[in-house]
Amino acid sequence: RELLGLTATPERSDDLPVLDWFDGRISAELRLWDAIDQGRLAPFEYYGLFDGIDLREVPWRRGRGYDTGALTNVYTANDVWARLVVDQLSKHADDIDSVRALGFCVSVDHARFMARAFERAGVRAAAVWSDSSEEERRAALEQLRRGQIRVLFSVDLFNEGVDLPNVDTLLLLRPTDSPVLF
């Protein structure tokens, strides 16, 4: 329930449709902090950074979130924001030359843009997305594992149910309303 953003037991099973499959009962529950204590999830440090980006002009719709094209335009308008991301990663990572990071992007254009910006800053990077072939994704993950690239930017990949023990840093480079994705 906590991972779904629920803080109380639902009044009705239709508040959580999956409960219909279990006669309206929660059969097991594992909260984030308990999962960390049990070694099922890695402990983490989180840095929320103010980037100065004003998203008030980006169209937003309930249930759909921000307009992907408009949001991409904001994040790829120039290199200033990308340089800020590189600088903040350098500041917070013990050693940017040994980091293994996943960067979650708004769109394919955003992922490609970030990979190019990191490369220009001297940080080896690549981008993959849902339309990338399985071979391309597998090769990129292997390059990340071996340290041949330091940051792998993605779109609609590696969101849930992925075990990449060599990854030590996540760059959440897009807004999300989903507690599960966050």
Write up this protein.
This protein is an alpha/beta fold and 182 residues long. It is built from 5 helices and 6 strands; from the N terminus they run αββααβαβαββ. The protein has helices spanning 32-37, 68-76, 79-92, 108-120, 134-146, and strands spanning 60-61, 65-66, 101-104, 125-129, 151-155, 169-172. Helix 2 (68-76) runs parallel beside helix 4 (108-120). The longest helix is centred in the middle third of the chain and has 14 residues, at 79-92. The two termini are 14 Å apart. The relative contact order is 0.14. Residues 1-14 have low confidence and may be disordered.
The sequence of SSEs as H and E is HEEHHEHEHEE
Any idea what the radius of gyration is? 18 Å
Compute the number of strand runs: 6
Spatial gap, N to C terminus: 14 Å
User: How would the global form be characterised?
Assistant: globular
Counting helices, strands and paired strands, the structural category is alpha/beta
What portion of residues belong to β-strands?
Answer: 5-15%
Total count of helical runs of at least 4 residues? 5
Q: What is the average per-residue confidence, as pLDDT, rounded to a whole number?
A: 84
Largest sheet: 4 strands, parallel
Helix proportion of residues, in percent? 25-40%
Extract low-pLDDT stretches: 1-14
